[in-house]
Amino acid sequence: MVEISSASESNKPKEASLILDKDYVISRVDDRLYGSFVEHLGRSVYGGIYDPGNPKSDQNGFRQDVIRMVKGLSVPLVRYPGGNFVSGFNWEDSIGPVEQRPRRLDLAWATTETNEFGLHEFCEWAKQANTQVMYAINLGTRGIDAARNIVEYANHPGGTFWSDLRKKNGAEQPLGIKLWCLGNEMDGPWQIGQKTAYEYGRLANESAKVMKWVDPSIEVVACGSSAYDMPTFGDWEMEMLDLCYENVDYVSLHRYYQNQIHDTASFLAKSVDMDSFIKTVVSICDAIGGKKHNKKKLNLSFDEWNVWYHSVDQDKEIQANNRWGRGLHLLEDVYNFEDALLVGGMLITLLKNSDRVKIACLAQLVNVIAPIMTSSTGCWAQTIYWPFMHVSAYGRGQALQPIIKCENYSAKEADDVPLIDAAAVMGDDSSLTIFVLNRSMDQQVALTCDLRAFPTTECKEHILLHHSDVNPSNNEQNPDEVRPQTIRDWKEDQGKFAVELLPLSWNVFRFSTRDS
Ligand code: AHR
Fold first, then answer.
1. Which of 137, 304, 332 to mutate for ligand 1's pocket (most ligand atoms within 8 Å of CB)?
2. Distance in angstroms (rounded) separating the CA atoms of residues 139 and 155
3. How far apart are alpha carbons 254 and 448 in whole angstroms?
4. Residues 248-267: pLDDT tens digits?
5. Is the per-residue pLDDT at 1 higher than 60?
6. How many other CB atoms are there within 10 angstroms of residue 98's CB atom?
7. Which terminus of the chain is less hemmed in, N or C, by CB atoms within 10 Å?
8. Is there an atom of ligand 1 within 6 Å of 82 CB?
9. Ligand 1 in contact with 36 (CB < 6 A)?
10. Inter-residue contact 270 to 342 (CB < 8 Å)
11. Closest Cα partner for 82 from 323, 355, 363?
12. How would you classify residue 193: left for phi > 0, otherwise alpha for psi between -120 and 50, otherwise beta?
């Protein structure tokens, strides 16, 4: 029997239980679930990953302190070069001798793009950062011709105009880019070259077709709606997938959450909304596949997700006063503790849907709505760095479906929200990790886990991210204000595990089992 520590009736913790079984497998987690995103925007590239002349940069201009922090997140792929930026971008501007590359107006972010950092530089950076490139092509102002040419340039071995040009530009071997996004948010009025679902579906289909003729080993992602609350959501997916289902491999989802009304309880429920977004897109994909009698299951690429709202007013001012500037402090959200909790919740949602979500990109990686921030003198982890790091490190293997029983709550903008949410992953070494979010604003939750289906489990570590207040954030002077700690506060007995979860806490429980 597990004894949960006694407490007086008034402050008695809420109770919750979780059952886990080896056989409740959701799916093998695709490592690409822990991808990220670097866009030519603000200080993501210039002053972020690339900072020539800075003492912390190498001879390529790559910030080594940033690379170390990126490696700390074990990011398997990075989407590049946009985002909205890509819809007005000529990829050819970013190759060849740097001094001959054109300076262009970037209409997406009202800045000047020098093209000093381009395709080869990014591929080189990705190698150093131990990650793969997910490359987005421009289907805003460009089309099929540019699409097939860049695949030939990047992936064809040699003996043709574009592949030989790549060699001349210094890459004898193909760049080997395996994953391609067919444009970005093409339904958005803010997008350069916005399309109707019909226009986009046709263009995506023809682009995918010829890109795969050049290199049949690549995979491509079609643009879903740019958000769940777009007026065209649903119709967009149905019409465009009807036109390109056979030639595409994934459909994209994008979602950013805000806490404009300063209601933490509603804000932390947003990961439930994310879950319903995913399930709706899965249903649409399957409906189209079914209608076509196509046995292929279309999977999802959640290639932009995060919290984004803190910097919106500041951005308007910066853009108004610095039109066509460079390296501006754009989209520099400073994340607080509650943002880290929601990011943890969103990661749980991704894991629970890992049978269909195969790719996901935390948007973005450095400085721009990012887990990693830089100044000219150093870099530091924002609050959201930590849950992402935990799940990327320990969330690899088989995702298991926990059966959770707990109380629900209602808030200003959400009803029936479970107090706790959890995901579990069994590693290939038979280690077991359970990620648990306690959404309760003020109450501890006494959680009992029934792990009887695992031969012998032993908890090795409880990693806790908690703060007494939701607002604190990290900065260069105080980088450790919100930081995880390792504690020993559980009780275990014959396959039962009990712990009291602090209110508003992110928890990672790491177990070894007999086989590990
Ligand atoms: O990540 C910032 C922007 O958000 C991207 O450029 C765009 O795709 C999305 O709207």
1. 304
2. 20
3. 35
4. 999 999 999 999 999 999 99
5. no
6. 14
7. N
8. yes
9. no
10. yes
11. 363
12. left
What single-letter amino acid sits at 331?
A: L
Q: Residue whose CA is closest, atom 9 of ligand 1?
A: 83
Is residue 215 lining ligand 1, measured as CB closer than 6 Å? no
pLDDT at 6 over 60: no
Token pair listed for 401 = 């479906």
For the record, the structure tokens of 399 come out as 């995702």
Question: How does residue 234 score in pLDDT terms, banded at 50, 70 and 90?
Answer: very high
- Residue-wise pLDDT for 309-351, tens only, equals 999 999 999 999 999 999 999 999 999 999 999 999 999 999 9
How many other β-carbons are positioned within 10 Å of the β-carbon of residue 159? 8
Q: Are 71 and 392 in contact (CB under 8 A)?
A: no
Cα(186) to centroid(ligand 1), Å = 11
Q: Give dist(CA 306, CA 53) in Å, integer.
A: 31
| Residue 3 in this model has a pLDDT that exceeds 50 | no
Other beta carbons within 10 Å of 198: 12
For residues 18 and 457, what is the distance between their CA atoms, to the nearest angstrom? 15
Q: What does the block give as tokens for 446? A: 């006494």
Which atom of ligand 1 is the closest one to the Cα of 108? 6
